[in-house]
Amino acid sequence: MNSILQTSRSDNDDKCVYNAIENRVVISMLPKRSAGEIQCNDVPVQKYRRDDYKPVCFIRAVPNSAVMVCQSMTVIDTEADTEGIPTRQFSSTTWLCEKVGKVKLVPLEQFDASVMLAGGSMTMMALPLKGVLDGAVALGLTKRDVLAFSAQMLKGMAELLEDGTSPAELSESMSNQWNYMTRKLSNLEKKGIRVAFAEAMTD
């Protein structure tokens, strides 16, 4: 669907798109474009609408890269459809997305921020992780061991977060156990690492 909407199309192409999606659920992964905007601007619903028109249900559902291992966090936009599509369409979409991980339904005003946190932040977090891995290799560990340690560390961290432990509590806990971590965290704070990530999220 994304590739169809992002390419230039003729009137005949538009009509083919309309005929293909009429009376169907269209799940879009288009970034920063609401279901309402897609219906008004991208898909020629009004142009080819007939008297016996059957509505199209547009739902935005954006997974992250972990969809490849069925561990995605998919964000679904709960924006109300102007055609009054039954709620069961959202249930069907949720059921489908749950097959590849977890799902979170959010209102339109929170959608972009949720997508950035669920998906975009994975890309951003890969940057400091790469730095940690480079440092570990420089200390003599093999790349294979570094990846194994890191994967298990991230799994454990994820479990702690799901259990309700906040990032601040994680930092404090480890600093209390290992005093030298206080100095390392202080150095990172002085370099503005946390502020840089916060700004990247809101930019």
Automatic annotation (TrEMBL):
<dbReference type="InterPro" id="IPR008927">
    <property type="entry name" value="6-PGluconate_DH-like_C_sf"/>
</dbReference>
<dbReference type="GO" id="GO:0004735">
    <property type="term" value="F:pyrroline-5-carboxylate reductase activity"/>
</dbReference>
<dbReference type="InterPro" id="IPR029036">
    <property type="entry name" value="P5CR_dimer"/>
</dbReference>
<dbReference type="GO" id="GO:0055129">
    <property type="term" value="P:L-proline biosynthetic process"/>
</dbReference>
<dbReference type="Pfam" id="PF14748">
    <property type="entry name" value="P5CR_dimer"/>
</dbReference>
<feature type="domain" description="Pyrroline-5-carboxylate reductase dimerisation">
    <location>
        <begin position="109"/>
        <end position="202"/>
    </location>
</feature>
<protein>
    <recommendedName>
        <fullName>Pyrroline-5-carboxylate reductase dimerisation domain-containing protein</fullName>
    </recommendedName>
</protein>
